[in-house]
What does this fold into?
Amino acid sequence: MKTVLVAEDENSIREFITINLRLAGYEIIEACDGRQAIEKYDANRNSIDIAVLDIMMPGCDGIEVCRHIREKNMNVGIIFLTAKAQEHDKVSGLISGADDYITKPFSTTELIARVEALYRRVDYSRNLLSITPRDSLILGEFELDLKKHVLFKRGKEIELTHIEYQILECFFNKPEESIERGVFVEKVWGDKYYGDDKVVDVNIRRLRLKIEDDPSNPTHLITVWGQGYRWIT
It folds into this structure.
């Protein structure tokens, strides 16, 4: 059963999400605030595929819940709900480990499309873990393990979300080549992605924090102005 954790403190919105996702074939675990979301996740961590988290919840917000989940599991899909359209809220959510965001108000169509797209990526990543023979791609001091979906830098393991892994796989398959944002969107988020391509920029920023010695002066993940990004070994 495809299972989604829905954490939203506004009852009407939580009920709207729950009803529509159940009609779309998902099992739903509900939480009315962040602390309950953490408790529900810990109690059901082996069955939850996706978490839909309101970013603004009393006591314990969605970002704190996201970080807790990421400490336990890098492969759970995470979508933030935010009532604010400001760039800061979207960036903060993605930097904390989320895969996508939906700005309120949103339609049933958008909700289901975003969840379905993320579930496909999570399921695809999970299937790769079970069938990919042990192998790796090596670029200089980095090794990308194609079975474990982790990155090694000078032998030290760096955990990746499934989104980060897919982005790095693009780079490792085309080292030294400029890759446009649209290519990442199509390969990682799919051709039916509702959001804008700035989601790529935020994930690149997050990857730099993990892999660069000095993230403010990157030497591997290089911006190609007006085009996209390039991996330099």
About this structure: The chain has a mean pLDDT of 89. Residues 108-131 form the longest helix (24 residues).
